[in-house]
Amino acid sequence: MELRQLRYFVMLAETGNFHRAAERLNMSQPPLTVAIRKLEDELGAALFVRSARGVTLTAAGRASLEMARATLAQADRFREAAREGAAGERGRLRVGFVGSATFELLPRLITEYRRRYPAVELVLEEATSMEIARKLAAGELDVGLVRLPLLQIAAVDTQVIDPDELYAALPEGSPFADAESVELSDLAAQPFILQSRISVLHSITLTACQKAGFMPIVAQEAAQLSAVLALVRSGLGVALVPSRAAGSVPQGVRLVHLASPVPVLTGVALPRDTPSPLAQNFAAIASNSD
């Protein structure tokens, strides 16, 4: 049994006439007659009563008509799903993201992506940049928002999408908390809260301090940026965080501009080998976001 046979059956049932059904199907009548007869032979039951005035459904035809229509509709949905999948408009997209992306970038991208691709299921996973790169290469994630540059060589392609700069995160009791800007070297005597060593921000902070002429006194390390800010709030030390964190800074913490800017970059990462259409669509939105 083929879908075209079901389509012929439904059209003939709706028109009640071989000639009219053949016209609507853009075919000649003899092949339609042969196809219907072959379908009846396969089913072992007559679907139509034939007469000089046309055809009417038999009991078998009436019982199977709605099922035939449903089968054709399901086949159409299958074709549409396949087309949408190939175009990256339907499916399941696994997105890895660094914690700092949650402040502003990720919500903005997710809103726009859902608007354009409402049939895609999003699965979000927070991780470090290198964990995201490893999972992309291993096929465990489809696309990632990472901090650049990556500290290790990874089989991923990256593109900068969100240039930013670091600010000093200070407890409100700090003598620099109300300043418009501060030199990083002025914080040399302060204990520092750093993200864990596998974080790109860890490396960027150390490099910035070295360029400012000192090695920071590390009081504590934390895996997530939110934890870093919480530790700053408790008075354990100061930290360098992206300016995008300004909207999520807890009470008791001040962000102060660095007089000598320290750039920090967020990028979108794709697996180097055959990224999915879903991932490519997400990356395109990320690359064109403001």
UniProtKB/TrEMBL annotation:
InterPro entries: LysR_HTH_N (IPR000847), LysR_subst-bd (IPR005119), WH-like_DNA-bd_sf (IPR036388), WH_DNA-bd_sf (IPR036390). Keywords: DNA-binding, Transcription, Transcription regulation. Residues 1-58 form the HTH lysR-type domain. Pfam families: HTH_1 (PF00126), LysR_substrate (PF03466). PROSITE patterns: HTH_LYSR. Belongs to the LysR transcriptional regulatory family. This is LysR family transcriptional regulator. It comes from Sphingobium tyrosinilyticum. The lineage of its organism: Bacteria, Pseudomonadati, Pseudomonadota, Alphaproteobacteria, Sphingomonadales.
